[in-house]
Amino acid sequence: xxxxxxxxxxxxxxxxxxxxxxxxxxxxxxxxxxxxxxxxxxxxxxxxxxxxxxxxxxxxxxxxxxxxxxxxxxxxxxxxxxxxxxxxxxxxxxxxxxxxxxxxxxxxxxxxxxxxxxxxxxxxxxxxxxxxxxxxxxxxxxxxxxxxxxxxxxxxxxxxxxxxxxxxxxxxxxxxxxxxxxxxxxxxxxxxxxxxxxxxxxxxxxxxxxxxxxxxxxxxxxxxxxxxxxxxxxxxxxxxxxxxxxxxxxxxxxxxxxxxxxxxxxxxxxxxxxxxxxxxxxxxxxxxxxxxxxxxxxxxxxxxxxxxxxxxxxxxxxxxxxxxxxxxxxxxxxxxxxxxxxx
Length: 343
Description:
Strands 8-9-10-7-11-12-13-14 form an 8-stranded mixed β-sheet. It has a 6-stranded parallel β-sheet with strand order 3-2-1-4-5-6, with helices on both faces. The protein has 2 domains: about 10-130 and about 295-315, NAD(P)-binding Rossmann-like Domain (Rossmann fold, 3-Layer(aba) Sandwich); about 135-295, Dihydrodipicolinate Reductase, domain 2. It is α/β, with parallel strands linked by helices. It is globular. The mean pLDDT is about 95. The protein has helices spanning about 15-25, 45-55, 60-70, 80-90, 105-120, 135-145, 165-185, 295-310, 320-335; strands at about 10-15, 35-40, 55-60, 75, 95-100, 125, 155-160, 190-195, 205-215, 220-225, 235-240, 245-250, 255-260, 280-285. Helix 4 links the parallel strand 4 (about 75) and strand 5 (about 95-100). It comes from Paenibacillus agricola.
């Protein structure tokens, strides 16, 4: 962006740890913007954030900030309940929105946000960062190569430490891999689900789910997700099975593409690497200076700002949120669980 081009005027809503330690810094990768103000109900967090990042205006009420500041867009990272309130108010104030997942508590709220998005014509984006995670983007690109033969089977694991509640675990955790499956395969329909629960104490819920589905393209898949692991251990995995080959993404930072050999080898002889048939491997170097995370947040921010500057509508948006939230409803219905509106 040249110096004579008007910068986008951006506001920050939510100055907690994720925003302070990581999300705000992702703006450095995007085209330059002018951050006018920040908002948080916790004045100590607000003082720390605005002081550290030299933000000129500070608010404890986002509605007041929307009324007083000439904002083009906001970046919002709080919790699903407040994401809904903030995104709704921003769109109705004529402001574009990047909101962290999950942007609401239930499907009804997602449908309302979509209706407001369509009514106001605002540009919205939801932070399902797996769509921008380096290894998953690579996996999708490989799976679309003609030689891969299409994705026929999908299997993923996404585990976590204990959550405060089962509802929060599904809404904040399982939803990531529902969206990942949709990103890789298109729309999916759940076919079977199983659930286990360990002994629960207040504020300490340990549940596990195995969820089977079929995609519109005919692929079958399963997602295993539980809150019974320690997050210090590797907790995320994806395998895509094509025609005589597969892609495995292990714990975000390692990808292996196993390809069929063009001819049978004599196993008792030494042999050279077959460039057209042996496995391709990618993993990020931890020896490099850690300027970039590969978790997708940086690319997500670049994509959102670029979309605003160039008048494009980014994805995922609230239409995607509606489809993904409905999968949570289907899961609850399949298991006979009465969904709750909050947690």
